[in-house]
From TrEMBL:
Signal sequence coordinates: none
Biased composition (Basic and acidic residues): 194-249
Region (Disordered): 194-271
UniProt keywords, alphabetically: Endonuclease, Hydrolase, Nuclease
Name assigned to this protein: Uma2 family endonuclease
Amino acid sequence: MVRELSQSTDIIYPDSDGQPMADNTKQFRWIVVIKENLELLFADNPDVFVAGDLLWYPVEGNNRLRRAPDAMVVFGRPKGDRGSYKQWEEDNIAPQVVFEILSPGNRVSEMVQKQAFYEHYGVEEYYIYDPDELDLAGMLRHQGRLEPIEEIQDWVSPRLGIRFQLGEGTLNIFTPTGDPFLGFVELDRRRRDAEAERDRERQRANLAEEERQRERQRANLAEEERQRERQRANLAEEERQRERQRAETAEAQLQAMEQRLRELGLDSGDN
């Protein structure tokens, strides 16, 4: 018993099967596009693990029983780096969705074996895309078996919520919000365009704020001018009142003088 346990614990599960990730640039590009866009799609969900070309070992103690899907998604497992996906160390949760991108080097027997493996070990959705032939196939688990999806055009993945559409010369994949899966170059271009638009928006906001400040300054200057005008008007009114007071005082003094002359018998009208 002790000897069997020692042999089990000595088993090495390699992180690589010695096979290249892709046979050509087209296959590699599609693997990266699907894997990275799935990463973006679930970036805010800490319990969705996405991997590309990662060895999946479903059974403890058997390091020959393994597959490396071109892309796989595991719901219920945390994000993080892994050398391989050892299912018994992952709460025994199998990848629910896997993708395979075909190349001219893929053999029919190999794809049959992969399908049997994925079906046996619990994959719920299996998608196969041939970029050279523009051919997409999908399989969905039903009553314990992976059965072909009859109509793949505009098919929406039950698990991922993404939509597949075979378009003019290519496969289009759309997120649940309708955004297309994009390659790094297009993503970077859109990122730079978005940053440039944000810069322009900030500039417009700054110019608008500067114009509001100038408008406030003009309003303040206008208010100051109105205050000065009111002050000038008040001063003028005060001057008119003083002038009336001086005139009234002079008139009163004149009347008093005339009254005094009359009392003295010296009428100002006499010669």
